[in-house]
Design goal:
It is a single chain. By secondary structure, the protein is α+β, with helices and mostly antiparallel strands. The chain has 3 domains: about 5-160, DNA ligase i, domain 1 (Orthogonal Bundle); about 230-430, DNA ligase/mRNA capping enzyme (D-amino Acid Aminotransferase, Chain A, domain 1, 2-Layer Sandwich), CATH 3.30.470.30; about 435-579, Beta Barrel (OB fold (Dihydrolipoamide Acetyltransferase, E2P)), CATH 2.40.50.140. Helix content is about 40%, strand content about 20%. The strands form 4 sheets. Strands 13, 14, 15, 16, 17, 18, 19 and 22 form an 8-stranded mixed sheet that branches. Strand 3 and strand 4 form a beta hairpin. Helix 4 crosses helix 5 and helix 10 (about 170-180) packs parallel to helix 12. The protein is globular. Bound molecules: adenosine monophosphate. Adenosine monophosphate binds near residues 249, 252, 256 and 301. Adenosine monophosphate binds near residues 230, 251 and 341.
């Protein structure tokens, strides 16, 4: 496949503001891609080279890419920097310089998708001494052969600003359409994706093999399983009414970790499915030594724990363990304890479809406790009063609440349903629970803050069915002056000239941004409002947050699609009015 064809598809995606059109363009792209290369196209659309858990990044700073552009187009670095100042997009810089240069050539080279992908791969794999020069020259080589439109997308990909704005759900729908003409394969594709977190691999199975092979898809230790999530209810009575006798566990507030033991190796994955084993050497050590099986997958929440006082530390303290430097020192100063709450694979067997009841027994049998490994505190009950007592007890020890889990349910990879139900303080009436919103734009503002150029954020929630983001609030408080400034500079890096296809909003902010950053907000209540598009239908107006205020800065552990969903907002609104 010629890369120029891929670039033309990208150009069309960039131009459309309609989600359905984007879906058609993508499915045509997938149809045209040779089966054996479908994984590469998927990775590029996801702005990665391999699935995220392989942690393979191109790792080229803007300065390096500027040098590659200069070398490829025969102009000085100074000229590249000048043009960049003017255009603010290295893709456009490369496109323009390449136009000027290519007009001199009689017969430009034909780049293939593989040429481009391999150059990305080689660049990502070169590391250590001398790698800066190697990376610059590989990319200069490919840019030297690229047509202007190709150069634009190659450069944007390299610095992580491809900004096609397509989410995984749209990619899955488009794969289905490319294969059989409609979206009906989506569920099967998603199921396989949930088990391996590698959409490239799933697409390849579908296109090279067949639909049946998707159905037989199995988990593999070493590849993360997309994590199960919880629904919420507001009282113990509702929980017992919904799922009957259940396991009720403490809800720990730390890092969610999925730990894979594969022989002598241990891989730990974050909620975002990135491999972060290097951050937690004490947990790696304990799993290697105290889980008695060649291969195993367990899940738990890790929290900094004070052995002497038996105290769990607050989230802010645990967060300091997310770091790149001084890891050994910190692991001794602030050791983590892993509160294990699930076991998905052990002794060569996949237990994701077995009932929780059975998985609990396996956990109790196969994990040697102590040494930083603990089982999550748990009772089994069908009595709401007992749930309430347990709830009050864990709250008094600094936990966030409880999770009630259906005893006969398998593990819902990648799903949020009533197999797991969370109960936190504050679900009872007023909205003291926070909501995770995605920033979709900002308003420059008047008054005191106008001097920073940012007065309020326009924020949205995620509509899962449509794979789009819908507005729910303007947020103008909760940050310090420094934080507003920092936020503005981060948002300017992802600003867009026009509303992207996946955002739906009546309110037009001064600056649209790529839906990327999630922040936590508190509000007094969820109200109905004709201004916002979250939950809006032809007959009903949308939902809005009353007096929203930011409670956190950008949440690095959450992707835009992990924000609170429209469905959840609807349920929270109902809970409020039920009281
Ligand atoms: P939330 O992030 O509020 O949707 O709550 C779900 C999160 O609670 C999970 O993603 C875990 O990180 C965390 N958690 C804490 N304790 C447990 C537990 N016992 N079982 C499952 N998840 C837990």
């Amino acid at each position: 496949m010629k890369f120029i064809d891929v670039a033309k598809y990208f150009d069309n995606i960039e131009k459309t503001t309609k989600r359905l059109e984007m879906f058609d363009i993508l499915s045509n792209l997938f149809k045209e891609t040779p089966n054996e290369n479908i994984d590469k196209i998927i990775y590029i659309c996801q702005e990665q080279i391999k699935p995220p858990f392989e942690s393979l990044k191109i790792d080229m700073a803007e300065k390096m890419l500027q040098k590659s552009i200069a070398r490829a187009t025969g102009v000085s670095l100074k000229k590249v920097i000048e043009l960049y100042k003017n255009k603010g997009d290295l893709g456009l810089v490369a496109e323009e310089l390449s136009k000027a240069q290519k007009s001199k050539l009689i017969q430009p080279d034909e780049l293939t998708l593989i040429d481009v992908y391999d150059s990305f791969l080689k660049t990502a794999k070169s590391s250590g001494v001398g790698s800066v020069d190697i990376k610059i020259s590989i990319i200069a080589g490919i840019l030297g052969r690229a047509k202007p439109l190709e150069a634009k997308y190659i450069c944007r990909f390299i610095i992580g600003k491809l900004r096609l704005g397509v989410g995984d759900p749209t990619l899955m729908d488009s794969l289905s359409k490319a294969k059989i003409g409609d979206r009906s394969l989506r569920e099967k594709i998603e199921k396989a994706y949930n088990l391996c977190s590698d959409l490239g691999e799933v697409a390849k199975k579908l296109f090279i093999e067949d639909i049946e092979s998707l159905e037989k898809f199995k988990i593999t230790p070493g590849k993360p399983i997309r994590m199960a999530l919880a629904e919420r209810l507001s009282t113990p009575e509702e929980i017992i009414e919904k799922i009957g006798k259940c396991a009720v566990e403490g809800k720990y507030d730390g890092f969610r970790l999925q730990c894979h033991k594969i022989g002598k190796q241990v891989k730990i994955f974050s909620r975002n499915l990135e491999e972060i084993s290097y951050m937690f050497p004490e947990i790696v050590h304990s799993i290697k030594k105290y889980i008695k099986s060649e291969k195993a997958i367990i899940e738990g929440e890790a929290i900094v724990y004070n052995e002497a006082t038996e105290e769990l530390m607050p989230f802010q303290v645990t967060m300091t363990r997310k770091r790149k430097y001084e890891i050994d020192k910190k692991s001794k100063e602030l050791p983590l304890k892993l509160f294990i709450f699930d076991l998905l694979y052990i002794n060569g067997k996949d237990y994701t479809e077995k009932p929780l009841r059975e998985r609990i027994k396996l956990m109790e049998k196969n994990i040697e406790l102590g040494n930083g490994l603990e089982l999550a505190e748990r009772i089994i009950t069908e009595n709401p009063e007992e749930v309430d007592r347990f709830f009050e007890n864990v709250i008094s020890r600094g936990l966030e609440g409880v999770l009630a889990k259906r005893l006969d349910a398998g593990y819902s990879a990648g799903g949020r349903n009533y197999d797991w139900i969370k109960l936190k303080r504050g679900y009872k009436g007023d909205l003291t629970d926070t909501i995770d919103v995605v920033i979709i734009g900002y308003i420059k503002g008047r008054g005191a803050r106008a001097k920073f150029g940012i007065g309020a954020l326009l924020a949205g929630v995620y509509d899962k069915k449509e794979d789009s983001f819908k507005s729910i609030a303007r947020i103008g408080s909760g940050f310090s002056e420094e934080k507003w400034q920092e936020l503005k500079s981060e948002l300017d890096k992802i600003s867009l000239k026009q509303k992207p296809a996946r955002i739906e909003s009546e309110i037009k902010p001064d600056v649209w941004v790529e839906p990327k950053y999630v922040i936590e907000v508190a509000a007094d209540e969820i109200t109905k409002s004709p201004m916002h598009t979250a939950g809006r239908t032809e007959k009903e107006s949308g939902y809005a947050l009353r007096f929203p205020r930011a409670k956190s800065f950008i949440r690095v552990d959450k992707k835009a699609e992990d924000a609170t969903s429209v469905e959840e907002i609807k349920k929270m609104h109902k809970m409020q009015s039920d009281v």
